[in-house]
Structure formats: structure tokens, C-alpha cells
């Protein structure tokens, strides 16, 4: 089994990074032979989508269409293709996923999806190019907003959940919101992140 962890924090070694590590530990506790790769997106050159629509309009039968942009996503696409289980972690900035996480999600959307689904009267909605089924968990971190107010400042979880469902055929089997980190500390959520990782397996 291949586990891919995608971290959208600009600060390595801080709360989001640590909680993703705990989720990895939880997954490995049940599946010690799994291969794990962790991507700190901040380490990679990921350019903004140019909306050229070449990937969306591609007729390829491959599990991923070709993007016209040449950057580090060329390599990251391969990591995504190999994945069986996914862990996404991001802080919330202004209630939303970070810029680097949003850019990553935009770049995988039509690369891994094709516009063949119809929802109500809207045609051309994304459906995965591949039949490969994946499972995913999502970790969202807020520095000051406690969990009781999550619904007011967490648009990140729904964005990630829907994008990976539409593009990667990934079912989100669990998510967590680590709120008020500046006062509680990341350690407060370690057990929850560990158990979330176990749920992934």
C-alpha cells in the first residue's frame, strides 16, 4: 500500500506538519509495510494553473492528462498516481486552505478528471479518469479559532473532500479540525490525529 501525505503549510515542523506525522504513525501502526511519501508542498515549484483547459479537454485514456506547465508537478503527478491512501493537511488562512494547497488542488483537478458527469442541468462536471479507488483523511489546523466555531472558518475540508472525490476517486473516511492551536498546542490533538491515521487503513 502506498500512502501519500500532502502538507499545505509553509512552516515545516509546526502544528500541521506534526499532526500529519501523527496520522502517518497511526496508519503505519496498522500497516507497517506500507510505503509512505510526505510532500511538503512549500518545497516544490508549483506554478498557478493558467486555465488553458488542455488537460480538461484531453481525450487521453490514461489515468492522467498532460499539463502544459513544466514544473515540479511533473514529478508529483506520479506520486499521486501511485497512491492508495491519502493524508491531506493544511492550516486555514482566512477560513480557507492555504494558497499552495489550493494551487495543488487546482493542478490535479482536470489532470485526473474528465468533464463527463452531469449534475441536474449542468453538464461537464468532473469525474475521475481512473477507476482506481482511494481512501483519504483530512487534517485542518487553526491557530486561534476553537472547534466549536469550525463551521464559520473551515471551507478547506469541503474543498479538499470534493476535489479528491471528483479527481482521484478518493473517499474521505475521516477528518479533524485542530483549533485554537496557539493556546492548546499541537500535542492536544496528537491522539486524535494518530487515530485518524488508523482509520485510513
Q: What's the architecture, going by CATH?
A: 3-Layer(aba) Sandwich
Distance between the ends:
10 Å
Q: Report the β-strand fraction as a percent range.
A: 25-35%
Which whole number gives the mean pLDDT? 96
Main sheet specs: 6 strands, mixed
The CATH class designation is: Alpha Beta
User: Runs with pLDDT <50, length 5+?
Assistant: none
The coarse overall form would be: globular
Query: Given the structure, what is the number of helices?
Result: 7
Write down how many β-strands occur, each being a DSSP E stretch of 2 or more residues.
8
CATH superfamily: Flavodoxin domain
Question: Which class do the helix and strand fractions yield?
Answer: alpha/beta
Count the domains. Answer: 1
Using the coordinates shown, work out and report the CATH topology.
Answer: Rossmann fold
Radius of gyration from the alpha-carbon trace, in angstroms: 17 Å
Characteristic terms for this protein:
two-stranded antiparallel ribbon; alpha/beta; 7 helices; globular; 201 residues; Rossmann fold; six-stranded mixed sheet
Description:
- This protein has 201 residues and is α/β, with parallel strands linked by helices.
- It has one domain: Rossmann fold.
- 36% of the residues lie in helices and 27% in strands.
- The chain has helices at 15-30, 73-82, 99-112, 150-153, 156-168, 181-184, 190-200, and strands spanning 2-7, 35-40, 85-93, 96-97, 113-119, 122-128, 134-141, 170-178.
- The strands form two sheets. Strands 1, 2, 3, 4, 7 and 8 form a six-stranded mixed beta sheet that branches. It has a two-stranded antiparallel sheet with strand order 5-6.
- Helix 1 (15-30) packs across helix 7 (190-200) and helix 3 (99-112) packs parallel to helix 5.
- The longest helix has 16 residues, at 15-30.
Amino acid at each position: 500500500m502506498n500512502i501519500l501525505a500532502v502538507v499545505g503549510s509553509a512552516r515545516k515542523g509546526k502544528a500541521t506538519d506534526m499532526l500529519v506525522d501523527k496520522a502517518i504513525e497511526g496508519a503505519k501502526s496498522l500497516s507497517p509495510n506500507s510505503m509512505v511519501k510526505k510532500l511538503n508542498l512549500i518545497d516544490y515549484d508549483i506554478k498557478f494553473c493558467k486555465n488553458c483547459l488542455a488537460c480538461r479537454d484531453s481525450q487521453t485514456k490514461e489515468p492522467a492528462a498532460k499539463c502544459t506547465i513544466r514544473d515540479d508537478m511533473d514529478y508529483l503527478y506520479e506520486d499521486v498516481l501511485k497512491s492508495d491512501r491519502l493524508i491531506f493537511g493544511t492550516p486555514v488562512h482566512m477560513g480557507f486552505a492555504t494558497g499552495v494547497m489550493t494551487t495543488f488542488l487546482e493542478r490535479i483537478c482536470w489532470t485526473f478528471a474528465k468533464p463527463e458527469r452531469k449534475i441536474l442541468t449542468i453538464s461537464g462536471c468532473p469525474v475521475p479518469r481512473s477507476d482506481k479507488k482511494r481512501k483519504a483523511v483530512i487534517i485542518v489546523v487553526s491557530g486561534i479559532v476553537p472547534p466549536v466555531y469550525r463551521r464559520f472558518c473551515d471551507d478547506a475540508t469541503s474543498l479538499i473532500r470534493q476535489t479528491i472525490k471528483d479527481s482521484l476517486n478518493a473517499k474521505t473516511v475521516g477528518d479533524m479540525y485542530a483549533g485554537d492551536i496557539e493556546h492548546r498546542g499541537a500535542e492536544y490533538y496528537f491522539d486524535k490525529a494518530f487515530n485518524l491515521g488508523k482509520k485510513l487503513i
